[in-house]
Amino acid sequence: MSVLQVNNLAKSFGKVTALNGVNMEVNEGEVFGFIGPNGAGKSTTIRVLLGILKATEGEAKIFGKDAWSEAVEIHKRIAYVPGDVNLWPNLTGGEVIDLFVKLRGGNKKSRREELLKKFDLDPSKKCGAYSKGNRQKVALVAAFSLDADLYILDEPTSGLDPLMEQVFQQCVMEAKRAGKSVLLSSHILSEVEKLCDRVGIIRQGKIIETGTLEELRHLTRTNLLVETKEPITHLHELKGIHDMEEKGRALSFQVDMEELGAVMKRVSQFGIVKLESTPPTLEDLFMRHYEGKGQTGTEAGGDPNGFYN
Amino acid sequence: MAFTINKGTGHLSRLIIRRDRIRIPLWVIGICSFTFMVPIAFKELYGSQEQRDVMAQTMENPAMIAMVGPADLSNYNLGVMTAHQMLLLTAVVVGLMSVLLVTRHTRGDEENGRVEMIRSLPVRRISTLNAVLLVNASTNILLAFLVGLGLYTLNIESMNIEGSLLYGASLGATGIFFVGITAVFGQLFESSRGVTGFSITVLLIVYIVRGIGDISNEVLSWISPLGWVTKTGVYDENNWWPIVGLIGVSIILFIIANYLHAIRDLEAGILPSRPGRKSASVILQNPIGLEFRLQRTGMISWAIGMFAIGASYGSVLGDLDSFFAGNDMMKQLFTAKEGYSVTMQFVSMIMMVMAILATVPAVMAMNKLYGEEKKGRSEHLLGRAVSRTRLMGSFLIISVINGFVMLSLAAIGLWTASVSVMEEPYSLGTVYGMGLIYYPAMLVMIGVAVLLIGYRPRITSFIWLYVVYSFIVLYMGGLFQFSEWIGKLSPFGHIPQIPLEDMTWMPIIMLISIAAAVTVVGFIGYNRRDMGR
Ligand SMILES: Nc1ncnc2c1ncn2[C@@H]1O[C@H](COP(=O)(O)OP(=O)(O)OP(=O)(O)O)[C@@H](O)[C@H]1O
Ligand SMILES: [Mg+2]
């Protein structure tokens, strides 16, 4: 069952087209990672989902309700954490958390104290005196204090230290164990890898890939390092070999997943002494998608300046 | 602990001057031109000694003395009159300038981490503070000379060189005193809000203590440094000792600030910041409560201000008829209407002015809705179970109540003071009714603000043009003989000036309908548009 559904969503600001037909779906009980380069349209999508922005075209539904016209009803069941939390400088963190909890949930029981301790946040300090990370914690404590059916998190950990990052991950896992759904936009790939069941990659206002991490990995290459009794010849004649490099007596290269079988067959003819294979890192995967498609042939690394365009 | 004016201080001073190369000149030019305009205007308006004596009479009541201080009213020449009416208030403005400029460069920079960067350069720790003191003390000295020489060159008979220089010196010394106060507070508190807040509080307390002292107890005036300013007797006895006193105290404050600066850590305050509430109070449970909490301080200040303005107008009602008899310009403003005293016409006019003034905090409260949106804080509410209608409605309620309270306080203030000075005072009902009748016009203004926020949020500040337009057209209208329709473009121009004019309900009903209509349309727009950032 899907809790969140986006169909052909488009949004433009005057002449700027921020979203250009976004389709995605988050199922009940899953953590959905939403990733893509800067300016790809993640925050814009999320703000449409929250009814803060009005879609130019297409529809966005949460719990089967329209994100724009039934926003208040939806918001009673969701928790939202933005990536850049601006608070009222003369209210304390404790006051803001209470207000936020109150505005969402009426009198339901709050886990505030427990979370304050976990996140190591002093609620008696004025928000004006908080660091960026501490302001972020205020929003996180407010969000996780009350149970929600869907958590919408837009780069929720920007500014958190690694320790707090872990506490955050625990919170998400707990929510997941309780059967809640999460939409998590993030640039921190290890976080995505650890938490997400499925990911959607957005680029220039379009979702270019969706699936489980396994499925996405399959679309990419694996790294091999082989050492053979006799020198390998004519390897580059095969399809799907990239970045070949001699390392002493060994040879290192990348292979497209679908060609792996053919390549191994050829290599084994030369008498394998040593074989190391490393799966593609998440970074490899994302780099390729962030760069854009159609560059599978020649090289894998790419120039670092072109990553985020 | 002496100040060390060394090379580092020099460099840092230049940096401050560079960063404030617009700000400081604006303050100085503003204060100077304001100071020079007043005696020129007085010369026009109160050219003869009789006119000034009438003015002196109006000044001889507790409310006025509490506001501007005492003076030798038997020798009310142009110089004495200028100094009496303007010196103290201008000194307060100069004090405010010092507070804002010094906070900006001490705690403000420290908060932003700028001082940290400077500390990493080869300058002495104490240099940052002393550069601020040096620049701001110099600014005030410059201001003193400019004002002094400027006033003298106006070439007004009673304004001699000694008096003029003393006038300037009084302003400069007050400024330097508040440089010292702010510098000390800058060491005590951790946040620049705290420093500004406490320094301005001292400014107000010193002003109020002097006011109470001037009308009741001489000793109190002696405690207050602003009391000293009124003791200078500019253009009269010309006492210089208060200046010496102020400078002396300032030097002590500078030394204290240096000492405190030396013994504290960067970004720490001598006084620990008081921990705030750990949890929200019963007020802070909904958008209205939140807005009330955020705007509370501002609203209280405006409330006190509106009451004080009402009271100060009320306090002159006693001898108004004789005052007007000798003033042609005022006569023109209040063309005599049969059957009603000039005083009654004056009250009616003042009510309109105060109603327009009371519109300012009300519209500010409404416009805050867009301010919050721009700072990305409306999202926190709209992202939770708060609808746009509820959010805008909360601001509207606060704004509408705010305007009502401000208008009421101004009218009540006027009445309260008038009772004590008039032989046959008006009833509270009469005065209050004369004020409250403008409320529908204020509602239209708030409605227009709502409309702009709903449809054209980027130009919400245009509402201020409309407010200023209303003020100029209606206040000055009589003077410039504008045609009637120009006044009718403002909602305030449609209100019948009771009791001078007959009460007619038609315009009132129309205004309320218009207010309701534009407000509703504004809500529709707000419900339809994107929330920006
Ligand atoms: N209010 C606005 N007016 C005009 N353009 C906008 C507005 N908001 C977003 N955009 C544009 O829409 C595009 C998508 O922005 P968005 O904030 O959704 O990106 P993002 O994926 O969240 O990026 P990041 O990773 O940096 O947070 C960008 O090109 C941005 O400049
Ligand atoms: Mg974003």
Automatic annotation (TrEMBL), chain A:
One of its GO terms (molecular function) is ATP binding. Coiled coil: none annotated. InterPro entries: AAA+_ATPase (IPR003593), ABC_transporter-like_ATP-bd (IPR003439), ABC_transporter-like_CS (IPR017871), ABC_transporter_ATP-binding (IPR050763), DrrA1/2-like_C (IPR025302), P-loop_NTPase (IPR027417). Keywords: ATP-binding, Nucleotide-binding, Transport. Residues 4-229 form the ABC transporter domain. Pfam families: ABC_tran, DrrA1-3_C. PANTHER family: ABC TRANSPORTER ATP-BINDING PROTEIN, ABC TRANSPORTER ATP-BINDING PROTEIN NATA. Belongs to the ABC transporter superfamily. This is ABC transporter ATP-binding protein.
Automatic annotation (TrEMBL), chain B:
The chain crosses the membrane at residues 24-42, 83-102, 129-153, 165-188, 195-213, 240-260, 302-326, 346-370, 391-416, 436-455, 462-483, 503-526. This is ABC transporter permease. The lineage of its organism: Bacteria, Bacillati, Bacillota, Bacilli, Bacillales. The keyword tRNA-binding does not apply. Keywords: Membrane, Transmembrane, Transmembrane helix. It comes from the Bacteria. It comes from Terrihalobacillus insolitus.
